[in-house]
Amino acid sequence: MKQSIIIIFLLSLWACKKDADSYGIANIYMPQALNVSGGINANYAVPTGTDSSTYNYSIDASTGKLNIILGVAQASTYKSEGYSVNIVTDADTIALLKFNSILDNTTILMPASLYTLPASVSVPAGQSAATFSLGLDIEQLKSSEYEGKKLALAVKIQSTGKFAVASNAAVTIVIVDVDALVIGPSKDISAQYLKNTSTPFTVAGMHSGGRWGTLTDWSANTAAKSHDGFGGYASDEGGTIDMESGWGSPAIHNGKIWQTTGSALPAGTYTLDVSDLDWQGTKDPAYIVVAPGLDTIPDYADIAGNTSIHYTLFSAPKITFTLTEETKVTVGFAVNYVQDEQGFKIYSVKLMNYPKHL
Fold it and tell me: Where is the BT-3987-like N-terminal domain (predicted)?
């Protein structure tokens, strides 16, 4: 009896030694279904980062394709003899996610005409993982039809051999943010080119009343300095860029606040983002302005229809613009408050660049 136990024990040791580097359940899975959210969901955002270490796609200029990186892997250290999976899509999954409001109204099913996928992927013996690409046609992606949209596609793997697919990691929900790809991802360069851009803004002087002041690093015309020579700043909520008329304050006709970048911006695509604001009952049109090559912004009456500048209303507080050569740029705000009781408070001004875009 003792001899039999010893023989079994020795055989067990031999088997353990033989498979010492092989353990776990050898299921197949998609790493992208788990890695981004830590298993909370299967969403795979594209783009997912802002620099070369985090891009999850590559661009093939020769074919006009944007290739989103996907993959398959085996979940153990089993020295596999190799395996294959089929690659399919599942429109019903996207429809269900939209029906349950898990995907918002800006998200639509990625049309089949936009993408290519391999029908299958094979992993050779001795390897545990392989990558494949979801290829998107760049010109179609840049179509106005997809502007402001997110495109969703459920990519699913199916086993063709003896190794099972892990059911909780068999599907990756690829969600492509079209705008972020076409003009982004963005990089905040505000601190590099502008000064005094966020709450609490600093001031060069304050009105005796203690609320109104004049901003450092920004210029303001006489109309904007509507409080006995002070203006453009209010101490409200920790200190904001501000122009206000009514509620005891004087009217502001052709009030302007502006700042020129400290150095020239390289050729490229940019966004001036002033969305962090409180738009206080503005009744007369108020403008956010980008003026390339100028050291000020035009007067209020010279903004609408001016093709030498870029401008928008405070109701849509972002301006995306492209420079074809190195240029200094002036950014600012212009109002003509004729009607009573209106104004704005700005909490931050951001200048964004898009170092990698389509």
Answer: 52-161
Helix%, strand%, coil% for the chain, nearest 5: 15, 40, 45
Chain CA centroid to CA 138, Å: 18
Whether the Cβ atoms of residue 241 and residue 201 lie closer than 8 Å to each other: yes
d(CA 170, CA 304): 54
Helix (H, G, I), strand (E, B) or coil at 275: coil
193 in helix, strand or coil?
helix
Residue whose entry in the numeric block shows the structure tokens 């009607």: 339
Strand partners, 29: 73
Of the chain, the percentage scoring pLDDT greater than 70 comes to: 88
Provide the pLDDT for residue 20.
42
Question: Domains in the chain, please, with CATH?
Answer: 2-182 (2.60.40.1740), 188-353 (2.60.120)
Single out the residue of 31, 44, 26, 45 nearest to residue 131, CA to CA.
31
Taking only the tens place, the pLDDT of each residue in 215-244 is 999 999 999 999 999 999 999 999 999 999
> Do 181 and 110 form a contact (C-beta atoms < 8 A)?
no
Coil, strand, or helix at residue 2? helix
H-helix or E-strand spanning residue 301: none
Bridge partners of 344, per DSSP, are 243, 279
Strands 107-109 and 150-159: parallel
